[in-house]
Amino acid sequence: MDRNITVGVVAVQGAFEEHCTALDKLGVYVREIRSPSDLLTKINGMVFPGGESTAQGKLLRESGLFDIMLQMIKDGLPVYGTCAGMVLLAKHIENDERKHFAVMDITVKRNAYGRQLGSFMTTGDFGGIGKIPMYFIRAPYISSAGKDVTILSRDENGAITAAREANMLVTSFHPEVTDDLTVHSYFLSMI
Ligand code: GLN
């Protein structure tokens, strides 16, 4: 499709390889981001993968990436946060003292489905585009969202599981572990 677009995939921890594969299938260039030098040439979008938000926040600060990324997001770079990535972008975290980028006007609850129901698969509508497989792994959900946030999906109990605000897209679930490219295509349409 568009080899003029480069998407950075944050690769300090977690499930970044699966995002690279999904984006590659959609025909864009992918660059793994591990240190500030990986951001010296332009990227058109950035993905924060699932994993462990506390560990990721720590590694991003230690590597010197944190402040650079925060400025890029504030300057309008399209970003997509999956699961732990959503926790990193949230302005408020219900059950954690820490905050990370705190740029998106959402409150998230970490490990919101409990530890016993650690991971499960369901299907649901995404953004009115259609039903897609939704794979949850110790996932957070969005317990409240500000007025400028567009809700893109909810779980069976009505909790918000995907949303967008301006240049920021987040999902509780992991589309990168399925073959469905709907969410990644949606993200590329934001670029
Ligand atoms: N529970 C993790 C966190 O809050 C996220 C889990 C995931 O990304 N699969 O960091």
How is this structure best described in words?
The protein is α/β, with parallel strands linked by helices and 191 residues long. The protein has one domain (6-189): Class I glutamine amidotransferase (GATase) domain (Rossmann fold), CATH 3.40.50. Helices cover 23% and strands 34% of the residues. The protein is built from five helices and twelve strands. It has helices spanning 16-25, 53-62, 65-74, 84-89, 182-189, and strands spanning 6-10, 29-33, 45-48, 79-82, 90-93, 104-109, 119-126, 130-137, 141-145, 150-154, 160-165, 168-171. Strands 2-1-3-4-12-11-10 form a seven-stranded mixed sheet.
The number of helical runs is: 5
CATH fold name, please?
Answer: Rossmann fold
Proportion of helical residues = 10-25%
Task: Spell out the helices and strands N to C.
Answer: EHEEHHEHEEEEEEEEH
The rough form would be described as: globular
State the fourth-level CATH superfamily: Class I glutamine amidotransferase (GATase) domain
In angstroms, what separates the terminal alpha carbons?
A: 13 Å
Q: Give every kind of bound small molecule, once each.
A: glutamine
Q: How does the major sheet shape up?
A: 7 strands, mixed
Structural class: alpha/beta
Q: What is the strand arrangement across the widest sheet?
A: 2-1-3-4-12-11-10
